Amino acid sequence: MFVIGTSPGRLSPVARRIGSDGYGDRMSVETGPVHPSSTPRDPEAGRRAALPEEVVRRAPKALLHDHLDGGLRPATIIDLAAQHGYDALPSTDPAELERWFVESADSGSLVRYLETFAHTVGVMQTHEALVRVASECAQDLAADGCVYAEVRFAPELHVTQGLALTEVVEAVLEGFRQGEALAAADGHPILVRALLTAMRTAARSREIAELVVQYRDAGVVGFDIAGAEAGFPPSRHLDAFEYIRGESCHITIHAGEAFGLPSIHEAVAFCGCERLGHGVRIVDDITVDASGEAHLGRLAEYVRDLRIPLELCPSSNVQTGAAASIAEHPIGLLSRLRFRVTVNTDNRLMSGTSMTREMLLLSEAFGWGLDELRWLTVNALKSSFLPFNERLELIEQVVKPAYALLADEA
């Protein structure tokens, strides 16, 4: 068991052991980073000043869970709508449209939330539009300090005007390469890779899985399913998952965002997922008693033992009701219990967020500093679907030196 809030001096000999996680990072079994993170349960929480925004913005970041159709620039939506005759936008003023997206996502109405994607997907139906959106995505993430990002999209949602699935994938990959080049020229190098998502409410998952294999050497690094969890369990798509696994490709699955533990169990036990998209509801299998001792159920223990990464998206999780607030988000508990925690944006437009903002919110809520942010970033890179040597290069040659410089300046 792991006791929440105890000092390192009170830990058992096993819990005090500091070891290497394969990338040269010294980790504490209880706290994650060597310097214990503050949480709302920690009496020091709130006394530690949040990091300055400029420091967080300069810190290198790695992003694993970001939706291409959830991160468009409002001005781009308006421009593309005018070019392609899309006349259903609620506003043609960029500031008003941006506000409408966030308010709709915050409304508590599933109908309004889903409507937001109808507008973004509605203007992403041509080769030119997809290239532009993907290029701007890469540039925006790079400007926010991301050095690596895996961005996901569902090819089947972009064929209403005649594009073939292959043409959709190729347009997005072209846009990512274009955006990488422009970002590098601007002094913000980034690597962007694609995850192809199948809609779990449809029946095209095998086709999408085959696309992953077809484009695995062109920038596609994994397979995902997304959409409504309730009534559409991962096991409905076993054929696709078995095919992907047979081709030695990577799998992440949206699970444990809304439906809870049964979705996580199927993703892990039957579908071979290597990461959990969100996975926040794993906290339903953890109880904390009055003394602060955490008790893990069998599924939570299994996920932690296997080091299955959690693609947590704090702001989005608050919007969808998975957490009441950032301060009450399970990321604090899960990080202290040494789950493989990562922080992500999900839908930057709908949440009005960025990686800088997500990290700032965590710093403010939990008193997290550079050590914790570095830990989250290394976690994400260790959990990425890049080849091992490329992950190691980013960690050792980009992330660690940059955080060391920021710490020296502080």
Can you offer a commentary on this structure?
With 410 residues, the protein is an alpha/beta fold. It has a single domain, classed as Metal-dependent hydrolases (TIM Barrel), CATH 3.20.20. It is 45% helix and 15% strand. The protein has 17 helices and 14 strands. The strands form four sheets. It has a four-stranded parallel sheet, sandwiched between helices. The protein has a four-stranded parallel sheet with strand order 9-10-13-14. Strands 1-12-11 form a three-stranded antiparallel sheet. It is globular and about 60 Å long. It starts with a strand and ends with a helix. 48% of the residues are buried. Residues 1-46 have low confidence and may be disordered.
Topology diagram in text:
Elements lengths: L1 E2 L9 H4 L1 E3 L5 E3 L3 E2 L19 H6 L2 E7 L6 H11 L9 H13 L3 H13 L4 H17 L2 E8 L11 H21 L5 E9 L5 H10 L5 E7 L11 H9 L5 E4 L5 H9 L5 E4 L7 E3 L4 E4 L1 H8 L4 E3 L1 H6 L11 H6 L4 E3 L4 H4 L3 H12 L3 H14 L4 H22 L1
Parallel strand pairs: 5-6, 6-7, 7-8, 9-10, 10-13, 13-14
Antiparallel strand pairs: 1-12, 2-3, 3-4, 11-12
